[in-house]
Every structure is written in C-alpha cells, then in structure tokens.
Amino acid sequence: MNIKREDLDVLLSEEQIQTRIKEIGAQITEAYKDRDDLHVIAVLKGSFMFLTDLVKAIDLELTVDFLGLSSYGDSTETSGVVRMTQDLSLPIKNRHVLVVEDIVDTGLTLKYLVENLQTRHPASLAIVSLLDKPENRTVDVDVQYTGFTIPNEFVIGYGLDYAEKFRNLPFIGVVRKG
Ligand code: IMP
Ligand code: MG
User: Fold this and answer.
1) For atom 16 of ligand 1, which residue has the closest CA?
2) Which one of 79, 101, 109, 172 would you pick to mutate in the ligand 1 pocket, going by the greatest count of ligand atoms within 8 A of its CB?
3) Pocket-testing residue among 160, 162, 171, ligand 1, by greatest number of atoms within 8 A of Cβ
4) How far apart are CA 91 and CA 73, in angstroms?
5) Which residues, chain by chain, have CB under 5 Å from ion ligand 2?
6) Which atom of ligand 1 sits closest to the CA of residue 101?
7) 118: how many CB neighbours lie within 10 A of its CB?
8) Is 132 a catalytic residue?
9) Is there a domain that residue 176 lies in?
10) Considering the domain boundaries, does residue 94 fall inside one?
11) What is the band of 73 on the pLDDT scale with cuts at 50, 70, 90?
12) How far is CA 128 from the centre of its chain?
C-alpha cells in the first residue's frame, strides 16, 4: 500500500482534537491536584504530539520522560511482538506515573508496558490514550482517560504514522475507501 495525503479523509479535525485534549487536561489536573510528583511518560514515537498538547493542558507541576516501544513493522497489522527501543531516563519508584499513549488497539503494547513499569514500584500508574479501537482488543487493559473511541480502521496523523510518514499532520485521517 502506498498512501498519499490526497488519499486521506479527516476522521478527527485539529479543532476536535484540541478541544478534547483541553477537557482531558482539566480532568487530569483535578484528579492529581492533591498528589505530589506527577510524572508523565510518553510512549514514543506515536504519542509525541499528544504529549506536547496534553502537558500544556495540565495545570500542575510535573515531570516528563520518554520510553520507546515498537510492535509494528512497516505494515498496518500488529506483529504481536513488543520491543523496548528506548528505556526511561529517570526512576519512577514512588512517583505518580501517567503513561501517555497514542492509541490502544489489541492492547498488547500497553499490557507489556504496564507489567514492565509495575516492577519498578510507582506510587500509582494510570494511562491516558488519545484513541481507542476497542473492536480489536485481545488482552484487557485499564485505560483511565480516553480521547476518542474510533472504529477498527487504520488511522494516520497527529503523531501516528504509516511507514514512519504522516506523523506531522495536525489532524487524524483515515484512508479513503473505494
Ligand atoms: P496494540 O499493541 O495493538 O494495542 O497497538 C498499539 C500500537 O500500535 C500503538 O501504540 C500504535 O503505535 C500502533 N497502532 C495501532 N493502531 C494504529 C493505527 O490505526 N495507526 C497507526 N498506528 C497504530
Ligand atoms: Mg504507540
């Protein structure tokens, strides 16, 4: 498949995304206002854009770290094998960790991540995902904050890639059918 910008329909506009992120940011601000030490961990690469907008919408002192995971090759199907491509740079023991994900599909990536992070004994662990594709779930994962629930289609843009491209689109698009 060779996708071009012209082949994409807008599923979620820049405005819809930004409005929703402000709502989630307010929710997170409220939920964490009495806890010290909010530590936000973005899962690279897909969540880099969501992270930057989300942390601006959280009105609290916080710290940020990054972790690289990869489960997809250059295709639109999950390989089922999750690999850590980059570990955290800071310890998370006794910290209130909020993991920022772009999308939960089968759930395999998050399951792997949650199990890995739990062994490091954070004070608490919660997940915020911009998108959720529940139809494709094969393992149970607890996601505390979700931006949008979407149909089981391959989406691109706003951090999400197709063969590493299109991450810079300010909206989320879907490949036009037919
Ligand atoms: P899971 O392990 O199947 O839940 O897949 C999660 C990861 O696969 C996400 O963090 C994304 O990086 C990638 N992914 C899943 N669905 C899509 C999609 O529709 N577009 C782009 N990447 C996706
Ligand atoms: Mg991801």
Assistant:
1) 105
2) 109
3) 160
4) 29
5) 46, 102
6) 10
7) 12
8) no
9) no
10) yes
11) low
12) 7
The domain total for the chain is 1
Q: pTM for the full model?
A: 0.94
The amino acid at 2: N
Distance (angstroms) between ligand 2 centre and the Cα of 122 equals 21
* Omega within 30 of 0 (cis) for the link into 33: no
Distance between CA atoms of residues 1 and 130, nearest Å: 25
Evaluated on CA atoms 126, 129, 130, 135, the torsion sign reads: negative
pLDDT of residue 79: 64
Sole residue written with tokens 């409005």: 19
Q: Residue 49 belongs to a domain with what CATH number? A: 3.40.50.2020
Q: Is the CB of 101 under 6 A from ligand 1?
A: yes
Give tens-digit pLDDT for 112-169: 999 999 999 999 999 999 999 999 999 999 999 999 999 999 999 999 999 899 999 9
Give the model's pLDDT for residue 177.
78
pLDDT of residue 95: 97
Of 105, 132, 142, 161, which residue is the catalytic one?
105
Mean pLDDT value across residues 65-79: 74
Within a domain: 178: no
Give the structural domain span for 132: 5-171
Q: Is residue 74 part of a domain?
A: yes
